Amino acid sequence: MAGRHKYRLKCQTINKQNKLPCKAKGILMKNGKIRCRIHGGFSSGAKTLEGKIKSLKNLRQFKNLNDEEIRTHITNKQRHRENADERNAFNANMRKVWFSKSF
Predict the structure, then answer these.
(1) Is 31 exposed, middle or buried (0-12, 13-18, 19+ CB in 10 A)?
(2) Apex CA 60: angle with CA 30 and CA 41, to 5°?
(3) In the predicted model, is pLDDT for residue 2 greater than 70?
(4) Domain tally for the chain?
(5) How far is the C-alpha of 33 from the C-alpha of 27, rounded, in Å?
(6) Is the model's pLDDT at 103 over the cut of 60?
(7) pTM (two decimals)
(8) Which site in 23, 37, 51, 52 is 20 to 30 Å from 62, CA atoms measured?
(9) Is the CB of residue 60 less than 8 Å from the CB of residue 39?
(10) Rounded CA gap, 37 and 62, in Å?
């Protein structure tokens, strides 16, 4: 289906660079204004541990788990991400050492 640009909600924000209105597709906010994803239309997600637990409880795979089990899942996931970052930093340092050697 072709896009219906005539009926599309446009973002009501003015760009800083050229002072023209934003041309992106927007969503209706609670305050009645229309914003696109760049100008504050979508949420960035839960930040606190309680918020993450609450959001994960809505998923099918976490529906039957209690808060403590979901909390351990989140902390293990964060720990795994930190270990992966350490491994990537180590590999980057080894690449620097390997390619800086003169043969």
Answers:
(1) exposed
(2) 20
(3) no
(4) 2
(5) 8
(6) no
(7) 0.44
(8) 37
(9) no
(10) 28
- Whether residues 36 and 60 share a domain: the answer is no
Give the CA distances from residue 18 to residues 3, 12, 14, 22, 38, in Å, rounded to whole numbers and listed in that order: 26, 15, 8, 10, 16
| 38 and 49 part of one domain | no
pLDDT tens-digit readout, 42-94 = 677 888 889 999 989 988 988 999 999 999 988 888 777 777 777 777 677 66
Is residue 38 within 8 A of residue 24, CB to CB? The reply is yes
9 neighbors 25 (Cβ within 8 angstroms)? yes
Measured in residues, the chain has a length of 103
Tell whether the model's pLDDT for residue 1 goes beyond 50: no
Distance separating alpha carbons of residues 99 and 101, to the nearest angstrom: 6
Q: How many helices and strands (H and E) does the chain possess?
A: 2, 2
Question: What's the confidence (pLDDT) of residue 97?
Answer: 63
The reply to whether 38 and 50 lie within a common domain is: no
